[in-house]
Amino acid sequence: MERVLIVGNGYAGLQAARTLASKEGFSVTMTSAEKCPAYIPHLLPELVAGKKEAADLSLARGGEYAELKVDFRAGAQVMTLSAEKRTALLSTGETLSFDKALIAAGAIPYVPQDFEDLPARCENVLLMKRLLDALLLKKFLAQGASRIVIVGAGRVGMLLAEALKERGVSVTVVEIGPEILATMLQADVAALLHPVLRERRHLRLCTGARIESIDAENGRAREVRLSDGTLLPCDAVVIATGVAPNTGFMENGPAYGEGLSVDHRMETAASGIYAAGDVVRFETITGRSEVGQLAQNARLQGEIAARNIAGEKALCPPSFIGNVVKLDPVIAARIGDIDGTDQADFRAGRSFARVTFAGHAAVGVQLVGDPEDLRGLAPAVLKKIPREDLRDLLQGRLDLGLAPLLAARSHSWA
Ligand SMILES: Cc1cc2nc3c(=O)[nH]c(=O)nc-3n(C[C@H](O)[C@H](O)[C@H](O)COP(=O)(O)OP(=O)(O)OC[C@H]3O[C@@H](n4cnc5c(N)ncnc54)[C@H](O)[C@@H]3O)c2cc1C
Fold first, then answer.
1. Pocket of ligand 1, candidates 5, 6, 9, 335: which has the most ligand atoms within 8 Å of its Cβ, to mutate?
2. In 68-193, which residue ranges form alpha helices assigned H by DSSP?
3. pLDDT tens digit string along 256-287?
4. All structural domains of the chain
5. In which band, very low, low, confident or very high, does the pLDDT at 47 lie, cut at 50, 70 and 90?
6. 41 CA to middle of ligand 1, Å?
């Protein structure tokens, strides 16, 4: 029996375990830093808001680990993994030996240096990455917390702010940059969301704001002080300032933020050590090399890695790059790159769309408006259509054979 260690029990790890279960000749051990079965992280804000229960977030079926014949070590974090010695030291004190490994440990929250010690020091300063974070914030809300400060207006911060809109709490989002959703939208595109955000009675948005201090008393944050003197009294603070690939436990691993480089078989430079999901740096649909960020990429990469562990020669397609945030009644979305050599603005159906070009090829779309309109533009990026064909696509004269919906009812703007 070949001994396979899977580090991480998220989308990538679970999919790999499912794939290996259908192969003969492997004994699979899966370790997870968390004590719970695999769950769906993107529903964490809805769990906090009481729109979902913990059971709704289940990714693994009840009894699935036993069915898969996986030795699942819940709450056993890998502290050090040596690719050379083929050993992993667990937080339980045990050392596991393995023949092959899949690193599927996801990402860890990035916390600005000034506040690094706060989550450990203050019980009401939280991250929004793990199930426990969400359950804790939910508990605070149930106990009457009503003034929530979210640090960071990125996707996770805004999803949480939006999820809380009917929760009877007041939310202040503090963002150092000039606009929200900076990794998805250029500032003037994000500004199109202002009318929607102004309707959010529960929400105060402080952009271009620097936090001077978070003042704590008896192990609880009480007030966030901005450098312009603004004081924000708070019952809980959520730090949502981004994530980085979780590679710190790898001996001779990459530098912080870099992600594990893998080939198209999802194998790292160390033979027999594979990686998948948010922990990797991999080729994207537009030909760049970026760290992982999407569940669907993680799942596919986990499957491809497992097939290769089992001796196949499977190749992984480039990562899809895209995000959507729903701010009812509109969505903000990005597919592909937001920077290139040129850009052009369009009215696409009922939406505003900015298309990014690299040379003549469309390599990215930013959209504010109706989700249906995005469906027509996504293929333009996936197929990197030439600039001159874009107008035909938007006017319905070009059918990419994928999603004609937008093309049927849109007119060109620029
Ligand atoms: C609030 C939120 C909203 C999101 N929204 C979306 C969305 O709408 N669409 C989308 O595609 N993606 C979304 N994502 C991102 C998506 O969840 C990730 O891309 C996906 O979960 C990555 O899967 P993964 O298997 O690589 O890592 P994860 O799902 O993060 O799993 C990592 C696993 O590794 C374990 N682990 C970590 N360190 C260790 C260690 N040292 N030893 C052992 N185990 C370890 C963790 O406990 C966890 O089980 C969102 C994420 C969050 C937090």
1. 9
2. 118-121, 131-142, 155-163, 187-190
3. 999 999 999 999 999 999 999 999 999 999 99
4. 2-33+75-109+243-309 (3.50.50.60), 113-239 (3.50.50.60), 329-408 (3.30.390.30)
5. very high
6. 6
